TrEMBL record:
Assigned keywords, A-Z: Aminotransferase, Decarboxylase, Lyase, Pyridoxal phosphate, Transferase
Name assigned to this protein: Aspartate aminotransferase family protein
Domain of life of the source: Bacteria
SUPFAM superfamilies listed in its UniProt record: PLP-dependent transferases (SSF53383)
GO molecular function: transaminase activity
Pfam families assigned to the protein according to its UniProt record, in alphabetical order: Pyridoxal_deC
Cofactor(s) this protein cannot do without: pyridoxal 5'-phosphate
Residues making up the signal peptide according to the UniProt record: none
UniProt family annotation: Belongs to the group II decarboxylase family.
């Protein structure tokens, strides 16, 4: 591709992106493709000879786009969002063009220094004290893995990396049954083992770990010869927003000298609004906190912020310095690859800098407040509908509901069929979960470009399809 072609296709790609985003409401949120259908249209081996860009681009539009789930669709209410504000897309074009590898300060000084700045902007925006510094990771899963590795090394007096776990006391990590599966995987990968992840019973409106049960578990483990290493607390769990009492958990962590990691991957974005910070009151005592601006804030995926109170313990756990990575004469600079498992790093700070400046914190707060209000209103409207039960009240902008099948024994089956019929309809996209063993349907408003009318359409679609399936009629 020569310079002239690069220009033509860069412009075509940008124009395509603008038209795509502009027409999202006209598309079904989820494609109706069957497994294997797309792969069958793609050549089974790479071409030996170069093909014209016109052909490649036409194939992209014909074979790929119709098979995409549209994550930026304003009526994507499934999972959690992966918001990419248009301004962060623009920043990513620039990052793609520079294609820098930002592993060390000297491999991209501006990327490192901007990263330090925007992390501190976010620390202030979230109301975290100035003792926290941080790093941008690809995902909350990576941040949690790093935190668990620090828990392991700290508890083993920094011997785990060198000597392995054999012959060491058995470590224990504590969490609730509401945490994301990234916690399980961190426990597997760190070698600590699933058996040593202690699930503390939850209770109360936000399904919080019961502090007395947590403390009793730690004491019983110590008495039985285990080595408690850390606690992972949740603020805004994936299923229904399970949230621990961080102040109570932090006090226990302090009493037992345990490392405390807080997973606020989704809900953390809402902490830019002071009125929602009660959900993580006490977080200033945590050792490590993760939140994903790529979920709710609008920073194009991927972008996960890992705050730590003591970066030294992270660096002590993860840094490795062969001669080819040494930065002679650059003492005192931050080399962010020493804070993470991967060595290579994308330039992720630029999209945050563009996003925060183009929208301002007030603009982003207004979006989050709208989402929370629209979800609360929708939950209240659905609660008034025949056969609809609100299973979990809105935690920020996430709630769950269930529709009665008529025959109680068929409820799970009926709600799975309902969510499937809603998604096949294409106007909105929802996902299901299980609450106390029974199927419930999640609703979450969080799309960057959603309007109240989009959330109203969710009400119409849910009541219309549920009514049709049970012959009750909606509204
Ligand atoms: N923690 C919570 C509460 C989540 O909801 C998710 C993903 O949805 C994760 C962690 C994992 O996030 P990531 O995909 O960034 O690893």
């Amino acid at each position: 591709m020569d310079t002239e072609e690069f220009q033509i296709w860069s412009r075509r790609a940008a124009d395509w992106g603008v038209a795509y985003r502009d027409t999202l409401r006209e598309r079904p949120v989820r494609p109706s493709t069957r497994p294997g259908e797309i792969a069958a249209r793609i050549a089974s081996s790479a071409p030996e000879q170069a093909e014209p860009m016109e052909t490649i681009f036409a194939d992209f539009e014909r074979d790929i786009v119709p098979g995409m789930t549209h994550w930026q669709h304003p009526r994507f209410f499934a999972y959690f969002p992966a918001n990419a504000a248009p301004v962060s897309v623009v920043a990513e074009y620039l990052v793609s063009a520079m294609a820098a590898q930002c592993m060390l300060w000297q491999t991209s000084p501006a990327a490192t220094e901007l990263e330090i700045r925007v992390i501190d902007w976010l620390r202030q925006a979230l109301g975290l004290p100035d003792g926290f510094s941080g790093v941008i990771q690809d995902s909350a899963s990576s941040a949690t893995l790093s935190a668990v590795l620090v828990m392991r090394e700290r508890a083993l007096d920094w011997a785990g990396n060198r000597a392995g776990l054999s012959g060491q006391p058995r470590l224990r990590i504590y969490c609730s049954d509401q945490v994301h599966t990234s916690i399980d995987r961190a426990i597997w990968v760190s070698g600590i083992g699933e058996e040593n992840l202690v699930r503390v019973p939850t209770g109360g409106r936000w399904r919080s770990m019961q502090p007395a049960a947590l403390e009793a578990a730690i004491e019983a483990d110590r008495a039985a010869g285990f080595l408690p290493a850390g606690i992972i607390a949740s603020v805004g769990g994936t299923s229904v927003g399970g949230t621990d009492d961080i102040a109570a958990v932090a006090a226990i962590a302090g009493r037992h000298d345990l490392y405390l990691h807080v997973d606020a991957a989704w809900a953390g974005s809402a902490m830019i609004c002071p009125e929602f910070r009660h959900f993580w009151a006490g977080v200033e005592a945590a050792d490590s906190v993760v939140f994903n601006p790529h979920k709710w804030l609008g920073a194009q995926f991927d972008c996960s912020i890992h705050f730590v109170r003591d970066p030294e313990s992270l660096v002590r756990t993860l840094a490795i310095k062969p001669e080819y990575l040494k930065t002679h004469g650059k003492d005192g600079v931050v080399n962010f690859s020493e804070w993470t498992v991967p060595l290579g790093r994308r330039f992720r700070a630029l999209k945050l800098w563009f996003l925060l400046r183009a929208h301002g914190l007030e603009g982003l707060r207004a979006m989050i407040r709208d989402h929370v209000r629209w979800s609360e209103n929708l939950a209240a409207r659905l609660a008034g509908q025949p056969g609809i039960e609100i299973v979990t009240e809105p935690m920020l902008s996430l709630f769950s509901f269930r529709h009665q099948a008529g025959d109680e024994t068929r409820n799970d089956e009926h709600n799975l069929a309902l969510v499937s019929a809603i998604n096949d309809d294409g106007r909105i996209y929802l996902t299901q979960t299980r609450v106390d063993g029974r199927v419930a349907i999640r609703f979450h408003a969080g799309q960057f470009e959603a309007t109240e009318a989009d959330v109203d359409m969710a009400f119409d679609v849910i009541t219309e399809i549920a009514g049709r399936m049970t012959g009750q009629g909606g509204q």
